[in-house]
What we know:
Number of domains: 2
Low-confidence stretches: none
Strand content: 5-15%
Order of helices and strands: HEEHHHEEH
Mean pLDDT: 75
Distance between the termini: 28 Å
Amino acid sequence: xxxxxxxxxxxxxxxxxxxxxxxxxxxxxxxxxxxxxxxxxxxxxxxxxxxxxxxxxxxxxxxxxxxxxxxxxxxxxxxxxxxxxxxxxxxxxxxxxxxxxxxxxxxxxxxxxxxxxxxxxxxxxxxxxx
Length: 130
């Protein structure tokens, strides 16, 4: 799902309205009629839940939260991106002379990326729980 529309300034443009509708189709894909989802607007920042029509209204009126790029609260599975440089930096195999603290930190990062169950990352779950 493309996300360039999130930063569009004209929230009444056909493109923005269409993309918000596409996002809502995705977010409500496996939900029952009358279900609620988090508000991803600038104002609410996924803190409250409402029905589809209310979410659409907020996204058009207030705009989509520009920092919300991984739609994990709405069914998107987060896959972290690591460049080759990141992979080299995080590689703590036997050949690497990294100290024990770095190895432990890297293990924690990798463990945090492992889902608890499909669609629920450990760190995301813990952050929402807290």
